[in-house]
Design a protein that fits this description.
Helix content: 40-55%
Number of helices: 14
Shape: globular
Number of strands: 14
Radius of gyration: 20 Å
Largest sheet: 7 strands, mixed
Distance between the termini: 41 Å
Number of domains: 2
Order of helices and strands: HEHHEHEHEHEEEHEHEEHHHHEEHEEH
Strand content: 15-25%
Structural class: alpha/beta
Length: 371
């Protein structure tokens, strides 16, 4: 497979949308078919089966048309009722977004916010859940792209099972690039999106939904129409979707999943671990700091790099793009000028990351000397 550098004018190294292989782009240009016909039935059946294989789950798996944020909203409205207590654990901007969705739909949200660069403290989560047994669900981000931190979702899943609370997981930028065998580690709704580790364009939101979550949906009173899992399940039984699907993205996702299956999940995960370490090593060799306070929790799908005092990430981003044709991400929110974020998930090779390392090593000394 060619590297992204060989295929694009600008190498896209942001947390998402991520680069798309040429054969996936070509698949996305396939002709339209009747989404109530036999060709679509074969397509949705194959995509659903491959998603379940790669997510390592026998749970219901629904491919919804929408963004990752739509998947998060679906997780909330299908499992909860207004007024129910929810522990919302946030380690960054996307954890905050998940929290706000629950709040907007009327949940009684107990907020647990950690500082940028920190991972979720399992002891604090346990203490809160044990102290208030009325908490119905635990919401958490698996991989926080705003800070480059990955939570220990395996330990969180074990805790949720032990204390019998629903576990709603934002794994939009996690699963597919990072280890997360859903059935083994736990998660009542695990949400992801086509534009992250799955090597496809934006437009599809995929959710693995446990039987416990489906049962919760029978009692959940939050309003829902478009995101209704019961409707998704009844239509999937007919090899259809309730609403008109993003057919071109579905064709693309089908090809992306085929590439992943052919590579082998173990190799996919090893590749992400390898390129993640390469970026971190390059950062440290420049004397720069990672945002994650404990490198054990540093993400293998996105690296957040702290800018030295007096250096703006916007200037670094501009220089790398103009001189090396590489597009990096800056920080989000209050961290906008303080971070450079390197996305390395989905279609990413060792050479792609070597190019990023070369660019940083060429550009950063110039800025740090002037800081």
């Amino acid at each position: 497979m060619p590297t992204q550098t060989q295929e694009a004018l600008v190498q896209l190294r942001i947390p998402g949308p991520t680069p798309v292989p040429p054969e996936v782009l070509q698949a996305g240009a396939s002709p339209m078919v009747n989404h109530r016909g036999p060709e679509f039935a074969e397509l949705i059946t194959r995509v659903t089966a491959r998603m379940k294989e790669l997510m390592m789950t026998e749970h219901d798996l629904f491919v919804l048309t929408g963004s990752g944020t739509g998947a998060l909203e679906s997780a909330v409205v299908n499992t909860l009722s207004p007024g129910q207590k929810v522990l919302a654990v946030s380690i960054g901007e996307f954890g905050d977004r998940f929290t706000e969705i629950a709040h907007a739909f009327g949940a009684n949200v107990i907020r647990m916010r950690f500082e940028a660069g920190e991972h979720a403290d399992l002891n604090r989560i346990r203490e809160t859940l044990v102290a208030d047994r009325d908490i119905r669900a635990l919401m958490i981000t698996h991989n926080e792209t705003s800070t480059g931190v990955t939570n220990d979702i395996r330990a969180v899943g074990a805790l949720a099972r032990e204390l019998d609370v629903l576990l709603l997981v934002d794994s939009v930028s996690g699963i597919g690039a990072l280890p997360y065998p859903v059935d083994a580690w736990g998660g009542d709704v695990v949400a992801t999106g086509s534009q992250k580790g799955w090597m496809a364009p934006p437009g599809l939101a995929m959710v693995a939904v446990s039987q416990r979550a489906m049962d919760a949906g029978k009692e959940a009173k939050m309003p829902r129409v478009y995101w209704d899992y019961a409707a998704a399940k009844s239509y999937l039984a007919k090899n259809q979707t309730p609403w008109t699907p993003a057919l071109s993205v579905l064709y693309a996702l089908d090809k992306g999943l085929e590439l992943m299956v052919n590579e082998g999940l173990e190799n996919v995960l090893a590749r992400h671990a390898r390129v993640g370490q390469t970026v971190r090593d390059a950062v440290k060799s420049l004397g720069m700091e990672l945002l994650p306070k404990d490198e054990k929790y540093a993400s293998n799908s996105v690296t957040a790099i702290k800018m030295p005092e007096g250096v703006s990430s916007l200037d670094v981003q501009k220089a790398v793009r103009e001189e090396f044709d590489i597009e990096l991400a800056i920080g989000q929110g209050s961290l906008t000028p303080k971070l450079i974020r390197v996305g390395h998930l989905g279609w990413v090779s060792d050479q792609d990351i070597a190019d990023v390392s070369t660019a940083l090593k060429a550009v950063m000394p110039r800025f740090t000397k002037g800081a």
